[in-house]
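User: histidine kinase. Structure?
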Amino acid sequence: MSAASESDHLTASPAFDIRAIAARLSDRKTLWTVAWIAVVVITASAAFWVVSGTLPLGMVLAAVLVAVAGVIGMGLFAFFGDDHASGDGLQARHLVDALTEAAVVAALDGRVLAANKGWRAIGGSDRRLPQGAAAPAMFVAMKDARAHGLGRATLAFAGGDFDVTATRLTDDQVLVRAVPVVVPEVAVYAEPAQGDHANDSFLIETPAPATETGGAFDSFARGAPFGKALLSGDDLLSATVVGVNAAFARLLKASADDLTDRNFGDLLTQASRAETESRLISGKSGRFDIHLAANPDLPVQMLISEDTTGFMVYLFDVSEQKELEQSLAQVQKMQAIGQFAGGVAHDLNNLLTGLKLRIDELLYNHPLGDPSYDGLKEIRQIGTRAEDLVSKLLAFARKKTVKRVTLNIGELVSEFEVFLRRLMREDVKLETDYGRDLPNIHADKSQMEMAVMNLVVNARDAVHASGGGKVRIKTAVLTQSEAAALGWADAPEQGAALIEVSDNGPGIPPDIMAKVFEPFFTTKPQGEGTGLGLATVYGIVNQADGHITITSVVAPEPNHGAIFRIFLPVKIEVAVPEAAPVAPPVVAKVTPKDMSGAGRILFVEDEDIVRGIAARLLRQRGYEVLEAADGEEALDIIEAEDGKFDLLISDVIMPGLDGPSMLKRARPLIGNVPVMFISGYAEAEFSDLLDNEANISFLPKPLDIKTLAERVKEQLAA
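Assistant: Predicted structure:
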């Protein structure tokens, strides 16, 4: 019977068990309860005696006895009833108290529901499972227990190493047991007599238990989830294997008989032998990483216990822990790269803004027909290409300004399909597969088109390099469970929209798979790629609250190729009442816009090039512009001018006082003056800093004079 089924049959102790009553009375809360009941009884009796008046004494005593009995009955009900009402908690306490090892019943979120004395001795009185370095391995064991009924891990906490076993009790509760790994110091090794390994023993204050594979092991060692081996000899690496348990033989991919009588050093790789010898010489203790000669790819940790005549060696499979550490390191690495890319893009945006504004100024002074006009147009085109690179960096860093609209994924891909077919080569065929009842999503259309295009172009190049083939685009709607099965573990309840781009090319090798989303990483020849395509896709999908996965089969394996899956949350439709029909707007005759105006503007920007050129161009259009290099200088100017400005234009990220913080301090002085923030970052990056400020607008960098002049005139007119 499993632990889960056993727990279902646990029952509470009898309500009037003497030991239960004694334990209950030792509880401080229970003593307070009894005292409170006594006070209530005495007070009620006294009150009844006072108001009884001339009633006969017998009637008064009878009423008092009835009141006392009622109050005592309610107290006993409260005293013992909660045990029955909380049967689960009592069952949990009985379960852990019945175990000899340290044990605890915990919820899947880490809360401790019941713990025995052994667990409190190593885990303290904390009401949560161990945190810190031990938490990842504990989480893996509990996750396995929930999925498969049983999970195991070896972790260090409370100053020692423990083998932890997690067993599922209910859908949200597990039983966690911890057994110390370290061998007691009283163990004494007895040399085998006349080479007969059947009499080998490793005594621990008791007669030797039953033997296994030629060595003496206790029942715990035989059933332990970690490897355990008994060695005979003075030197660890040349010591002879006397006996091993099943887990040790499984890690070495050999039978127990094959391992017996072998030198322990032969079981390790050359590098691990050198590492082990170094640690023995230096006297270092504790677990350390090694590699086994028969299974070199498996991450293993070893712990050594030594006495005067032999060694006991423990091996721990830490593959799941290493995978979790690698996943965490990869996430942190991508976050660090994203922050770096965002910072670089911010600085480039400032330079591009200055470049664009200066070119606009020169084109105004050198119109069509001027000898310098063509050269200036070429410089503008180069700036546009640089702007596109910056846009990709911001998309990867998830700091790009997005304009989300409701899109149907089928219509999104079908409308874009014509353009994608033009990108194909003669030996590459594009196929599409549109599912039925495709859902709507809420995303930036241009960004999603960019993401799909990058995936298709990468697939096209991979197929073309291998001699031709097919690129396939598939769209579908998935339920939450279907999306989770395909790789999106955190899929929303409403389901997910799927855009899948696959090919029958050579596939992506495993060593490259972990790097494909890193910016500037590319396998294409020099000059044929920037390495920002997949990095951009990664940022776009994450900024759209979605998820992206890769699966790959490397040629010449059957069905080789790569599959990229983009998952996006299905938009939850909200019923909107039908609006009255609106007459079509009258199209006005297009006339050239007048960019000139009048007004007093304070322009706050830490980049001198951007501030100087923008202020000069605005002055040329009739505005009075004062300049400030940072937030502190802006406040000084506002105080000196008594806040008499018609518009405040400010960068967001500046040394010292940033734009939103400067505005909070300036608002009492400038009143309800409109404020325009300019930044290379997305508006969402700083909107939470504004605390519902009114009369705010946003203009993304890089700027051009036409857009800047139009927005300034709109703000002043409003």
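The chain has a mean pLDDT of 75. The CA atoms of residues 217 and 379 lie 80 Å apart.
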